[in-house]
Specification:
This protein has about 600 residues and is an alpha+beta fold. About 40% of the residues lie in helices and about 20% in strands. The protein folds into two domains: about 1-495, 3-Layer(bba) Sandwich (FAD/NAD(P)-binding domain); about 500-560, no CATH class. The protein starts with a helix and ends with a helix.
Length: about 600
Amino acid sequence: MSRYYWAGCLLCALSAPVSSLISPSAIKSTRAHDVRTLFSAAPSVEPTTNTDKCIPPEEEQNHYDAVVVGGGPAGLLSAIMLAQKLPPLSSLSSSAKRVVVYDRLDPPPPPDNLVYSTDVSKYYLLGIGHRGQNALKYFDVWKDVEKASVAVLGRRDWAPGKMKEEDARITMSNKEVTSRVLARDKLVGVLKQVIETRYKDVIELKYGYQVDPISFGNEDVRSDGEEAGPPVQLQVSQCTPLSSDGDTGECSIENNQPSKVTTQFLIGADGAARGIANAMESSDEEYRKQRNIFQRLFGKSKQLPFRVTRYDDDNQRVYKSIPIKFPDHWAHDLNYSARSVNSRGTFEALPSDANGNYCALLLLRPDDVLASANCDPKVLREYFDLQFPQFSKLLGDDVMEDVAKKGASTLPSFRFAGPRHHEGKRTVILGDCVHTVKPYFGLGANTALEDVKILSQIIESIPDLEKNIDQAPLEFTKQRAADSRALVKISRGMDRPGKIGTMRFVLPLILDSMFNKFMPKVFGPSMFGMFQKQEVTFTQIQKKKRLDRLMQSVVIATILSSIGIGFGYSTKVLAKALGMSCTVVRGSLAAAMFAAGFARSKLSKKESN
């Protein structure tokens, strides 16, 4: 039984993924906006007039109390948090905005746009679990998001070789918090709408801009200094999409006159772009190059080097998104999943709305011919007819042609930033840019939203905030850096390649289930069960599972030792009773056990035929 089956079992419980069908986690893609998670394709399906793009006035505002880089879910929620929790930090004019959000891409369609139901494969889906929901409730925006989302109450799964509708097994979710699913761009649209209706006098949204740090304000004052240092200085450049339809997700800043913006507080939440994190890494390298070994070890700044730990993806999977409409007699609040007999592919589908419109993913290996662009639609149809006939009959030839034509998108590689999530005393990074995971277990986007909640609680706890906002970045690192590292390492540990990797994934689930059933007060639930526990950090999960493995090993070793001692004593008694040597008795027993097993396997094959 593959790990992708178990990962899929979590889809209805978590965010997607596969965060989840997947995470704002960062996804490289051959299509537009496939830079943050799994369900994707080109997010903009209608030509959009970017009315939010700023046309520079005669005197454009060049200082803000706070700047947020990244207009995704974590970025917009950060802006809402700052509008609610952050007092004025500067002497700004009455008409000036205190917070600005910069994003390189155009804004998505509004949440009530029918395109989210009519062109479902253009938008990857996010599953919002308890971590994300708690964060959204904390800032009083959950009701808005809930209206735009669909509940997933369980899972309908076909085991390999089971292809009839009636062969599926339905497993209803058993969680305190019901997961809700919506398109990632739709979530962004909801948060953008909240900002425009409730915080338009405080927050300014600027789309089509690239931000590059000039100075973090810590050249002369490092993290452990008493002074906060000067404001952060940013270079802001207007972006021009490299393609006319914006379908590459890339933009050019050539021939654009950049402007300089300063701020008292910078939040980097730019996901896969990681512009702020990459700038922090470069700044730290340059700073250390200018100092000798004694200055690094004993100088005023004793902070650890900042770097982004990047893992090679040694267990790659790619995917193609598929729109599918389920008939009325199929439940429209379930996650549908099937695996091919030869483990060649996996089919996963989550609802885009409550009317049966689903966005499905076909997960394949990168070298699979079906993963290539412009593959033969007839071959793709034959594959579905053979492996997934229950779904093939619901897909028209036009859909097959579109899926065959598109190139596959890749899942993000594991990475985390650390050991700091701050630079100086005015810059914080959070979300996917500091903890990137594959979206199998629904942790990416939810953890990013949880980051914002934790930063908010830190800000609220600081006395005399106007003067002491510089305490927030360091405290955020203390509370969150270890958790980000643990999240990535746990997720990567459940995605190791080959049969050994599969055993490392499945065996702990079996052991956890057995031990937790018989001794629930001593042993915790499986990793999936631990993910569902509220108010439990990933560091705590990691420590608990390590302790469980140690105690499980002791229990298993004790049982095996007892069995061995008992078997040795029994053979001695039997040998004495039969007047035979212990060696002969042991050999006879082993031969008898082998013969019994062989006869049983033959009998089973005969009955199956």
